[in-house]
Amino acid sequence: MITIGERQTKSEIPFDVERIRADFPILDQKVHGKPLVYLDNAASSQKPRAVIHALKHYYENDHANVHRGVHALSERATEAYEEARIAVQKFIGAPCLRELIFTRGATEAINLIAQTFGRVHVHAGDEVILTALEHHSNIVPWQVLCWEKHANLRVVPINDDGELRLDELEKLINPATRIISVAHVSNALGTINPIQKIIDLAHQRGVYVVIDGAQAAPHLRVDVQKLDCDFYAFSGHKVYGPTGIGALYGKPQHLELMPPYQTGGDMISYVSFEKTTWNQLPYKFEAGTPNIAGAIGLAAAVEYLEEIGRDSIASHEHRLLEFATERIASIPGVRIIGTAKEKASVLSFVVEDMSALDVGTRLDIEGIAVRTGHHCCQPLMERFGIAGTTRASFAMYNTLEEVEAFAEAVEKIVASARPRAGASLNGDYPYPQAAAPSTREAAEEIAEVFEVVDDWAEKYEYLIDIGSKLPAMPDVLKQECNRVQGCQSTVFMHARKKPGTPDVIEFLADSDADIVRGELALLQRLYSGQRAGEVLAFDMPAFMQRIGLDKNLTQGRRNGLAEMVQRVMRFAENVAGQKP
User: What pTM was computed for the model?
Assistant: First the structure.
């Protein structure tokens, strides 16, 4: 295997990653006592001081509403806002300013296109083509449009490497095809799609092309004029800019004919109770007070990227991806999902017999931030027959040493994986008995354990340990009616009134995630075998706060736990209502 040192000496383009890291203050911290390794950049990248300072300067010196103001602050704010548009226009190679619309992000931009351009051009019997790689943000808007217009949604399949089948795309395009909307880069797999070929093929058939550039803009040089796409959208927070800001490029002949997406102030030219006329481009699509600070911060971000050099950034990120792919692929029991020949810096993988949620949680304990789940690409996950992946995504400030720390952590996680206890039962299966004479006493016993442990890693291991002893739930009970919705993992719960008792409840449960099995075991110790009235009276939020899980569990995990608790509460209410 090539060592880190050998890779660094072979670098063809000098790249001072330590200097770049010094520009990102958030990276200089510890998480759970470990140096932060931030590998969740495909979800949102961190912000350099240039962006932070731009926002701070605006709010401290220039804040006022833009356009139509005659005082000094408004004029300065307007100038900064419109200069930001120039910076973003240059960043993506848009020919002129009126083609560049500020939005809240790529999601709003795609919705804008679907609800304006789409409404005008798509009618009953027409077709919109997407690909199997799309983010939900580039599926649902078109799906809703097709439902409304009685049009058809067609999907370009992918091969097992996660690459588009262009031969199938060519077959799909027909006289009914109106729009093709496709991601430049897959957020879940990192696949770089052959956008130029798709655009050329579509335009030869008179089909319009929308590009979701959210994942491409941070990594690739984008020139919308050269691409000749009809629309191109991206988000600011993925290109080291603020959240809540993004941009949409559209060819002027389309934008001129499109009706406004939202109406209100600043997007109008004249208003009376009889008639309203629209403002000129791009303001026609920017209703209300815009995200002035966000636009200024976005401009600072793209200017920072240009200063570093996008080709140098791409070269560095490619080295990170190559090294990470080599290391992760060498770990027994780990399978990489998405092995396209052309990829951006995204590495998705699954670990045999371990949920992505567990992998991500254990990596977090090591100070390593990754993303787990379906990544808003559920159809894509279904294509590979998996619930989700663990995704590491790299940025210009990541280092080979961080990739090595990440790989070593994955090796450690795989080596420490515990086999599930017990086999699934199908006959007379036992429900867990009461852990203590009352819910309150069970809570005291649990609290005694948690209150002497301050470290989240130790609490986590305790949950994993009790989860490994969770009574087996038979397959016959793992039905959709027993599935708990709103969880980040697959969870089943089945409750019943204990035979021979008037108001005692008991339940079985299971999950594909070890950490969730631990939570279920915790709930069983509190509730199973207890009287319904005691279960209903127990203050679960206060107990969570007491044992510290309100801080240690993520918001998504807390939401999932709340859904499990509600499932028990609803059953307890039913049982309590049946009392004589």
Answer: 0.89
